[in-house]
Hints:
37% of the residues lie in helices and 19% in strands. By secondary structure, the chain is of the alpha/beta class. It has two domains: 3-56 and 295-384, Aspartate Aminotransferase, domain 1 (Alpha-Beta Complex); 71-292, Type I PLP-dependent aspartate aminotransferase-like (Major domain) (Aspartate Aminotransferase, domain 2, 3-Layer(aba) Sandwich). A seven-stranded mixed sheet has the order 4-12-11-10-7-5-6, with helices on both faces. A four-stranded mixed sheet has the order 1-2-3-15. It has a four-stranded antiparallel sheet with strand order 13-14-17-16, covered by helices on one side. It is globular, with a radius of gyration of 21 Å.
Amino acid sequence: MSLAELQELERKAVVPSYARFPVQFVRGEGTRLWDAEGNEYLDFLCGISVTSLGHCHPRVVEAVREQVGRLVHVGNLYYTEPAMRLSERLADSSLGGKAYLCNSGAEANEAAIKLARKARPRGEIVSLLGAFHGRTYGALSATPQESKQAPFAPLVPGFRAVPPEPAAIRAAVGERTAAVILEPIQGETGVHALGEELLVAARSACDEHGAMLVFDEVQCGMGRTGTLWAYEQTGVKPDAITAAKALGGGLPIGALVTSPTYGDVLQPGDHGSTFAGGPVVARAALAALELTEAPALLETVRERGAQLADGLGALPQVLAVRGRGLMLACEVEVSASDAVRRALLEERLVLNATGPSTIRLLPPLTVSAGEVDEALARLERVLAASPAVRGR
């Protein structure tokens, strides 16, 4: 179908919950995408950190093809080897406890909230201003952004949001706190890494009062920052992490991974999902995890991340660069949304605006040095041709 036909079909049949760009992608390979007219694009967004091994990685594709021809679904009333193996690999690669498999990052955070509330019944959940944990009701209640919460009030009770400051964390956590949930690097508001002092304060407060510390690594985990899990670059080990996005190599899957202390808190009947950890997505995730944890790939992420950050910082219209590894954002003196649209339509470069002056870059972890240079050149042309916004 043509783009015009798809747009007409959307107007007729699709709930208008997305603002889409006028591009129809039909094929992807590595760092490249192609639209229906055959134009080639450089993808520095990865479907918001999902296709982090590049589009259609051969190992992931082969795992899916083999599994989908053998067994697609039976549900969690029975055993399947991919789900059991994936749970073991996730736990062994991180906190050493147990894993609960689900279908998305929001579901993983819902599971973390339920786990915390089971461990401390009716306990309060503390999150940070600027956080994003998902759009389902529990995850949304931990996402203190007025534009996302206000249309759907009242939200789930028992949530408190505090500024991302050590003193605020220490003051908020008490005997009735079930958990503190935070992203080591906040993604949706423009890639803001939380300081070491704040993380230490959160760990100390949770230890003092017997609360869980949950790290939401849905976006910053799975190699994105240069280590398999973002918490590895901090001096703080959480009680649980949540993962999704890149975990499935492009397919929808999420996971809650616990430390040994919390591995058996949830019991049969406490939580579940019809599709969670199905054989096909679990096989894809096993392949993606094996590829991502390779030391050579993680070293490449650190090298390419430094190259991209340095290159962004050298662009005249860039005011600041933030992030770690290949999870980066830059503040620009032009309209970010306009620049992102022009980059897509004029330079065939896929980016994302997370604020009026913030451009986010999440390229594949497999990106080459030449592709980084190519993206920088395209972005430089876009920014040079964009008028500066007054007051910046």
